[in-house]
Amino acid sequence: MAARKKATRPTPPDDVTQHAHKIADAVAEAWYGIHGSGRLEVPVSVVAVLAAAPQKSSQGADVTDIMLQWSPDDFVDYATNVWRSVIQHRPESTHLLYPILGWWFDEIDTDTRRHVHAVARAALRAGQVDLTGTDRRFEVDLLGTVLTVLRPTSALKAQGQFYTPPGVGAVMADLSNVEEGGSVEDPTMGTGGLFRAVAEVMRQKGQRPSTMRWVGCDLDGLAVACATVNSLIWGLGRDIVFHVGSAFTANWEIAATAQRDHLREIAARVQKTKYRLRLLGMWPEQ
Prior knowledge:
It comes from Kibdelosporangium aridum. Residues 155-253 form the DNA methylase adenine-specific domain. This protein has helices spanning 16-34, 41-50, 63-67, 72-89, 94-101, 110-125, 128-132, 142-150, 153-158, 166-176, 193-204, 221-233, 252-279, and strands at residues 183-186, 213-218, 240-244. By secondary structure, the chain is mainly α. A three-stranded parallel β-sheet has the order 1-2-3. α1 (16-34) runs antiparallel to α6 (110-125), α2 packs across α6 and α5 crosses α12 (221-233).
């Protein structure tokens, strides 16, 4: 892999909302500049996989500087490995994440690899890892910001998408008076901004968001996929019940819970089978 000259990066904004918008603007400029339009699941997924990167490596090196030296193939390899890890550890969420992870496992042509790489470099230069690779990630809905910036205003209006502003979400969270072990439901959750606000209030009170049940629904499958990634970014735990569809559908929460639990059971059976085959020498050691 040929080394590139170390890129000069500006200092990220102190305000996390401004920082998120800076990243989103950079991603949109890169995507629309090189690709044109459509396929928003691609740039959104690039931002999602970058959220798995820490700010510093185990040796203390700056991860952004390392990743900026990667080739398109290097980044695609990284992304597919991230999604494989997510599927392995959170199999019950795979169907929710499919809109942004499924295409990584198709044959990715050279042009798409180049487009993905351009978006990744734009997000990195805008300081994404300095946000999502630190505790600042708890303070903002980056994926929601990216999705809003990528989508034309006309499309947002047509789909009736108006995400809860952070300030409004914080007020609602303060008024919700949630306690550990409780539940929070948002029937029009979008990318999960209200959940983030509630989790932030809980942390300020010394409570653990991972003890909660988070129940959400939205018509937009891409937004629900983002909310699912956000549940990982924000440390919401594993009691996630999300559904793509109308909140007016009868018993949607029961159906979503049953589907989640069924996928967990299937994954557990698969792991048990692998273990037995490995004991018999019929499955390769990892």
